[in-house]
């Protein structure tokens, strides 16, 4: 009878969470999404129609939602809270640079109200990422 030698398999608790292939997929999707955000932000066709509205205009709500999503999404890659805060801060800088670039796009304009909406969204998203990170990451 032949002897079969098998490698010991790692216990589920010993495997990285999330798996490396999934983390790469999350980061690739995040980077593509940031590229799409820049395109939509700087494309004159996507300028909000007419007036800008007030602090609760649909435009501002879209800013908050977009930046909250982009700040929270990396939690699926299993990031810890320091990285979640760093991503939130980087998104604030990214959003501010996009707003500055809008000054040079016909039909678009720089707005501190948009920057504030981006900051609020990034803070909300970072808080969600921190909460998700503590829920999704297994305890060691």
List strands and helices in order, with pairings.
Layout: H1 20-42, H2 58-72, H3 81-102, H4 112-136
Helix pairs in contact: 2-3, 2-4, 3-4
Number of strands: 0
Round the Cα radius of gyration to an integer and report it. 20 Å
Largest sheet: none
Order of helices and strands: HHHH
Q: What number is the mean pLDDT?
A: 82
Q: So how many helices?
A: 4
Measured by DSSP, the beta-strand proportion falls in under 5%
Distance between the termini: 41 Å
Task: Offer a few descriptive terms.
4 helices, elongated, 140 residues
Task: Write up this protein.
It is a single chain. This protein is an all-alpha fold. The chain is 61% helix and 0% strand. It has one domain (17-45, 57-136). It has helices at residues 20-42, 58-72, 81-102, 112-136. Helix 2 packs antiparallel against helix 3, helix 2 (58-72) packs parallel to helix 4 and helix 3 (81-102) packs antiparallel against helix 4. The longest helix has 25 residues, at 112-136. It starts with 19 loop residues before the first helix and ends with a helix.
Task: Summarize the model shown.
By secondary structure, the protein is mainly α. The protein has four helices and no strands.
């Amino acid at each position: 009878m032949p002897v079969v030698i098998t490698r010991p398999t790692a216990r589920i608790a010993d495997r990285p969470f999330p798996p490396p292939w999934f983390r790469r997929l999350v980061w690739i999707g995040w980077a593509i999404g940031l590229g799409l955000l820049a395109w939509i932000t700087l494309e004159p066709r996507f300028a909000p129609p007419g007036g800008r509205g007030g602090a609760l205009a649909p435009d501002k709500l879209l800013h908050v939602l977009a930046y909250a999503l982009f700040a929270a999404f990396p939690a699926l890659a299993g990031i810890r809270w320091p990285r979640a805060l760093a991503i939130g801060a980087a998104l604030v800088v990214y959003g501010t640079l996009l707003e500055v670039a809008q000054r040079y796009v016909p039909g678009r304009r720089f707005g501190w109200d948009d920057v504030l909406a981006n900051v609020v969204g990034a803070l909300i998203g970072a808080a969600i990422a921190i909460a998700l990170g503590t829920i999704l990451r297994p305890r060691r």
